[in-house]
Amino acid sequence: MTKFALRNDGMRIAYEIAGEGEPVVLVHGFASDRVQNWRAPGWYQTLNGAGYQVVALDCRGHGESDNLTIRRCTVTRRWPRTLSR
Fold it and tell me: Do 76 and 51 touch, CB atoms closer than 8 A?
């Protein structure tokens, strides 16, 4: 089930948690999302079966997370701060 973390700038970041155990955070690649990279190929089931809890997110502008807009920010100004958090 999709949940949303609300950033202090109002942007929503989509994520989901599956299973129990030691958490493993899954971050998708460029031009993808958590469903394409992790859920559909069966990684949630594989990791849950090995005793791990999956925490998977959609990066900004991907999947169910909010998209960047020129009006709200520019990528070059925001990316360094995003990566440092």
Answer: no
